[in-house]
Amino acid sequence: MTMTIVRPVNTVTSSGPSDVSLVARIAVGDDRALQMVYDRYSPLVYGLARRVTGSTGHAEEITQEVFVYLWQNPDRFDGDRGTLRAFLGALTHRRSVDEVRRNTRRAAREDRVGGDATNLELLEVGENIERSQTAERVRAAVSSLPEQQREALLLAYFGGCTFRQVGERLGIPEGTAKSRLRLGLSNLAVLLEGLT
Amino acid sequence: MNDFEAETPDAEILDAEILGLLAETSAAAPPPSLGARVANAAMSVRPGGQAIAALGGGGRTDTALAFVQTVDEFKSVLAQARGFEIVEPYGWSVTQLIAHLLEVDLYFGRQLGLWDHAIDDALEDDHLAMTEAAVRASVRADFADMVAKWIAASDALCRHVAQLDADQRRQSIKFHMLDTTVSTALVVRVFEVWTHTEDLSRTLRRDPPELDAGRLHLMTRAAIGAFQLGMLSGNVDGGQHTARIVLTGRGGGVWNQPLQPGLEAGEPSVTIVADAVEFCRLAAQRIEPADLNAEIDGPMDLAITVLRGASVFAA
User: Is the full-model pTM beyond 0.80?
Assistant: First the structure.
């Protein structure tokens, strides 16, 4: 099958239709478009949910919820305000953190998956070379952050910690934890310019 | 929710992008069976092929009301026009456009049993040819007089249509080459009147009234439903193929359409994705297949064949 355009207006590339086009198709009931979005982003959604919750069971539930949410509410995604990756990542993270904060057995959570929230070791991403290259670049950028910023960022993001919890884990005031995290994000924005 | 308390909305957007990239480092292949479970869960809350409510999915639009609303919109645009202005694509004056509409309404009223009206039976199947004599004869007609005649006929038609019950709308009617129901004929008339509203708006250099999702959905369904007829009448051979048509935006939907009558829909040979309103303009022959913004997945020659077949409504 070849993807071509009658009039070359849309940003279709050799990798298939754009995310914006796929979401517009989802909005009118195109289940094949949903399948394409799932194929593109389920590794990100599932992997993030698994990393944050520490549970493959919860990760599967959250993955299902995120894609069903997209199917029901495609009009909540605005391609002018960000990428579909950011949208799905935010949904997944929010849902995963909610799950973590309901879970009182956080030590058991880390044991189930292995490793801690701050371990950035690249997990398998299948045969998607472009995704692997992106992940490698992100990992390198995070590794180059000052340790204080990296720790705060990873605890907040993958650990699902609040600012207060980050501060407690690192032995610093909450305000300092927040500042380190914001600095980390700002520095990452510079390091990853071109990917955003 | 602003999880990381960005100071501005733009900063919040950037945070989300950075964090989305960060999430890539934890990407992992889900269990193979999860995809099917996700698909089943999604389809259980909104079936495939049905648009979200905001785009007209899941609702039922009253075809009689749709017709009356569309006529009212045409009247509001007409109120700004002068009789001598030229309306494309036929190069008629506005007066002649009204003469055309009057002739169509008199024919439609006749078919509904409202009144007698003589037509040339040999021209009945051809929407444009049937009104050609009346259009020619009106070249020097008085605009105000023509408008008054049309409004009188149109108002009578709208009053009649508005009081039709469900059984009456299901009754058979011949409308040009179509042997169909009154309800479907009303949708075809919505298509026609909307097209002329756009034609007239273009002449006046004004934005046309925006059709609501419900009426647009009536039109897109009619356009897809007329596919096979369009291919037959245009001698376009679609072979044993099935085309998947995805129309986006208001009035949109998804159809797997066999290209031959009597065939069941199979695995699509070609997928065409286009904006619903643009597709309606193609169906009304206001744009050419080559001018349609579309994403095509499959053989281009088959896609063009399908789009030619879709250009079926001469308004």
Answer: yes
